[in-house]
Amino acid sequence: MADALPPSSFDLGLPGWAPTVALSVYLRGLPAPGWLACVVRGQLWQGGWFDEQAEVWDSAGRLVAQARQFAGARPAAPAAETRELW
Questions:
Q1: Domain range summary for the chain, segments of one domain joined by +
Q2: With the C-alpha atoms ordered 11, 20, 75, 44, is the resulting torsion angle positive or negative?
């Protein structure tokens, strides 16, 4: 769950591939029954790389997991030009 959401680079308009270079997940406890709430945010975007932090909260309001990730931002390739051949 800590790495199941779209990368924060999508919020910057970069829907391309974002390969993970490093990922640490800290399990803080078993979640209470019910829904989970996830918060994902990025702090630094630089030179084609970005970081993310994620928190997973259970239905009782307890923090049950944290994650930190370092990833590369790979913008989608531009659409190929089409031209007619004579």
A1: 8-56+65-72
A2: positive
